[in-house]
Structure formats: structure tokens, C-alpha cells
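[job 4471] stage=fold_predict status=RUNNING
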Amino acid sequence: RIMKQTRYTVQHPVEFLSSLGMPLSAFPKEISCEVDAANQILKLSGSVQVDYKEYEKIISDGLFNTFSEANAIPEFERFNNESNELVEVELVLKRSVLKHFNESGKPPEAIINTLQSTLHRDEAQQYLRFTENWLATDFKQLMDLPAEFEDFGTLKQGYKTRWGDSAALQAEQMPSSPKAVVADFLAQKDLTYEWATDNIASLQFDTGTHKFSFLIAVMPDGQNVCCYSVYPERLPDVQRVTFAAFIAGINYDLPFGNFELDFEDGELRFRTALHIANRLLDVAALNDLVSINISEMVEHLPRFKAFQMAEV
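[job 4471] inference complete, writing C-alpha cells
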């Protein structure tokens, strides 16, 4: 039962972070915190404003858990991208994150202090900035009214996401296990796969020119998820040393992920990984991890083929 509701005004812009650590700037209007008699947070919601470019980033990248409904969200033309008016976003912190925070024993004010402080990559409550830990329920933008109606007030246009439906929001439960998130992601993408082991999903990708295996592995410790694109053939022993030097040069310039070679059996693969000990894995975060991985393998696979042929 709600015992107290407190509304906070945040004076500074908030730097949110995507699952890959990319920043997103927002201007908070108000944050509302509902607590019970034991000072446990029951609900944390807020209204923030973003410029149109940041709004486009939210929609295209599925930030704030809009990924699974991206195709259903109205076109960008619903909002005026030439207007100086910011886009207003209503956010709710996921209940599973609230549970994690309540178990830390910190007071509710610690959340507000984190959000209004300068971003530090090593801050203890950094997970409160992760976009995947928030649900966007509404998007709105102030409309330009004809001059004859300006004295009658203001008018906003916008839309609700599926989280704007009270039943869907109430159904938001404890975080799914990483394995369940993997299965959900593959189902949403309509990909055929099988569980090679209890924690490794295996599937095949066909670029039209090349085919390669792809693995999504939930590590046994449950704190890491790794994706692997596997080069379609094992490298012969005589090519492994030169290939190791070749991929070392490629890895040097990669901003995320790396190619690795097993000298024992000649397997070449590209790996991306996400540490989830202090964050909650969701479909949006996994989508980023998979997309980057596949893109790198598709880009470099022809180079590997050419290099391999030159070494014969």
C-alpha cells in the first residue's frame, strides 16, 4: 500500500546509457516516487524531454523497451521534426530493478541523486541509467496552434506504447532468466534454432554468398552472455599462425568484440559479450549484441576467404 508519494524536480540533464554504453541525453521535468511504510519504493516514474534526434534514436534502437513493438509505433512524421518543441517521454522504472534497489538498503533519494549527478562509469548505481531498465509508456509533443487559438491554452499530440496500457504494465514481472530472454529474442526474430547444450542456442545464417554458424551462449555463472559467429571452415594448421597475425591487426581497430582463433582445431570466430551481473538482460540489449556480431562477420568473411586463398 502506498504510504507516501514524493515528487522531485531534477535540475540537470540526465545521461542515460544504452546496453552498449552509448549516451542519450534527456531533460527531466519531474520524477515521482511512491514508497510504503517500510520506505520501500513501490513505483518510480518520470517525465523527460528529448530533442527530435534523440527521439529517433529511441525508436530506431528500441530504447526504453520499445524494441518489440518498433513496427507498430507510428511513423516519425507524427511529430514535427522541424519544430523546436522537444518530445516528451513518460518513463517507469521496471519493478524488477526496484526490487534490486530496495534490497540494497539505500534510501529512495539515492536514485534521484544518481540521476541528477554527473555520469561516472564506475558509479555503484549506474544500472539506474540503463535504458533497458526503464519502460517508455507515452510519447508526446507540443503542437503549434493557429494564432487565433493561442489564447485557449496548449495542445499536445502523441501516442501510448504497449507499456502505456495499465494491464501490460501490471503484468511486467520479475526479470526473465537470460535463457528465456534468448528464446524470446529468437522467437521475435522468427529464427530457427536448437539448443546445442542447456545454455547454448545454435542457428545458421545465410548471407546469400556465405553460410556460417551462430551461437548465443549464457555462461554457466549466469553473469555473462556471449555471441559467436563461426567461420564456415576450420583453418588448416599451416595457416593458423599467419591468420592469427591477420586477425590481430583487425582486432586492433574494432570498437566492440573481437575475432579469436583456436590453434588446436583451427576454429575462427567473432565474439561479442555482455556482462549482466549488474544489469538485466532483455531483448533490446541482446538484439544489439547479435546485430553487431553478425555485421562484423558478414563484413570480414570475404576478406578471410581472400586471405585464405592467397595463403594456399
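[job 4471] summary: The chain has a mean pLDDT of 83.
[job 4471] exit 0
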